[in-house]
Amino acid sequence: MYYKTKILLVDDHPVVRDGLAMRIERQPDLTICGQADGYRSALAQIEACRPDLVVVDLLLRDGSGLQLIRDIRSRHPRLPVLVLSMQDERLYARRALRAGARGYLMKGEATEQVVDAIRQILAGHVYLSPAMRVCLLDSLALDGSSEPESPVERLSDRELEVFRLLGEGLRTRQIAARLHLSIKTVETYCERIKGALRVSSHPELIREAVLWARDREAAL
Question: How far apart are CA 22 and CA 115, in angstroms?
Fold first, then answer.
């Protein structure tokens, strides 16, 4: 019997996890060692089953996928992470790579490409879609000096997370609980976001966040 590479799936949708597990288990050299539905359960599963690679969604029920990636890199620096998310790679892929991920795949492409992405990362490569690779190469050709296309893209990772959750209708207290932050810290992020977006009041900020969320949902 030969060793099978162990994969941990982290996604808060059981149907998505089950579909991925079925596809991965069809491979003779890959196996699912565990599944997790959130930030805390993912960290516990990593300790319990010692995976060789983790597949992570960015939207988790009890925390931030980006923060989970950072924590994995801090605690298990040699454990590779593949992001599998509905979030637009143009906005999130760079952030995920900076956090420590080794690849980014949008869920719409996952059915055919997830196994290839896993294999490329296990071989020591970075996996990105052809369109995202072109985008990064264009940026490098400009010596990394290309400006973000919108004020939202200029937000820090934490600011973007807060802005996204505002767009989903969460209140300050709920965002604090979701991201494991104090209410005061979330309020500070809201002030920074208002400055970046040049809005003067909290209702205006919420309106901008809701409109942004609707536009992104329509584009998917």
Answer: 11
Q: What SS3 state is found at 196?
A: helix
CB atoms within 10 A of CB 59: 17
Find tokens 């209410």 and name the residue: 183
Full residue range of the structural domain in which residue 100 is found: 5-140
pLDDT at 131: 78
pLDDT in tens, 159-180: 999 999 999 999 999 999 989 8
Query: Are 43 and 94 contained in the same domain?
Result: yes
Q: Which of 140, 166, 200 is the last residue of a domain?
A: 140
What percent of the chain is modeled with pLDDT above 90?
71
Length of the chain: 220
- pTM to 2 decimal places: 0.83
Residue-wise pLDDT tens digits, 116-139: 999 999 999 999 988 788 877 766
> Does the pLDDT at position 89 exceed 90?
no
Same domain (yes/no): 111, 162: no
Residue 7 CB partners (closer than 8 Å, separation 6+): 24, 30, 31, 32, 33, 51, 52, 53, 54, 55, 118
Q: Tell me: do 62 and 166 sit in the same domain.
A: no
pLDDT tier at 157, thresholds 50, 70, 90: very high
Q: Are residue 186 and residue 80 in the same domain, yes or no?
A: no
3-state secondary structure 46-91: HHHHCCCEEEECCEECCEEHHHHHHHHHHHCCCCCEEEEECCCHHH
